[in-house]
Specification:
Layout: E1 2-7, E2 12-17, E3 22-27, E4 30-31, E5 46-53, E6 56-61, E7 70-73, E8 78-84, E9 87-95, E10 102-110, E11 117-123, E12 129-130, H1 131-136, H2 138-142, E13 145-152, E14 156-163, E15 173-176, H3 191-194
Antiparallel strand pairs: 1-2, 2-3, 3-4, 4-12, 5-6, 5-11, 7-8, 8-9, 9-10, 13-14, 14-15
Length: 196
């Protein structure tokens, strides 16, 4: 099921499936994402390209089996490329080889006369807990995560999430933000984006 693994020197690992979906994001024995990816549905971790036109929103996932992306990887990064409604896109995952960070780089080329407003939605499910605890009860583990939102004038929103149950002797945490584009909104519950 896992096709390729990016693992850095500190233990941060991305496991990718053959269909281009992320199976898991791990740091040593800590599972960062909450739900493992599947060959049929991919994963909750995704980036959605949205086009606003005629008072409607058209969207597509850029990653996994539900996207029309071409998926490829090298030793140091993974990439998804494709086109949607006249928008050519390239989505690149760059895990850092030394630090416990990763970057998503998204390049868009608008070849459409109708797509005046385009945005991206990044979805990341979070567990930040011991693999055994997460696999035993995802819902229980995620109830103990606190989120703190910080707003910056230049970069928009930054989200900090912390696991409040001890995982060994630590409380794992994750910070998500942007370094070159302003984040204009956020949500902390999948129902707010995916609906029921």
């Amino acid at each position: 099921i896992v096709k390729h693994v990016f693992k850095n020197k500190n233990g941060l690992a991305f496991k990718l499936m053959e269909n281009g979906a992320i199976f898991s994001i791990e740091y040593n024995n800590i599972l960062i994402n909450q739900i493992y990816g599947s060959p049929l549905e991919g994963n909750l971790n995704n980036i959605y390209l949205r086009i606003h036109k005629d008072k409607s929103i058209f969207f597509t996932p850029l990653i996994g089996p539900s996207s029309d992306s071409k998926f490829f990887y090298t030793k140091n990064k993974a990439a998804w490329q494709g086109q949607f409604e006249g928008i050519a896109y390239e989505c690149i995952l760059n895990p850092d080889n030394k630090k416990n960070i990763w970057y998503w780089a998204i390049n868009l080329l608008n070849n459409s006369d109708n797509a005046k407003e385009i945005d991206l939605v990044y979805a990341q499910d979070i567990a930040i807990a011991d693999k055994g605890a997460v696999r035993n009860n995802e819902a229980y583990v995620c109830h103990y995560i606190d989120h703190f939102i910080e707003k910056h004038d230049k970069y928009g929103y930054t989200m900090l999430s912390r696991q409040n149950q001890f995982q060994g002797k630590v409380h794992p945490w994750i910070m998500q933000g942007s370094i070159n584009k302003k984040i204009t909104g956020y949500l902390t519950d999948g129902f707010q984006f995916f609906g029921l």
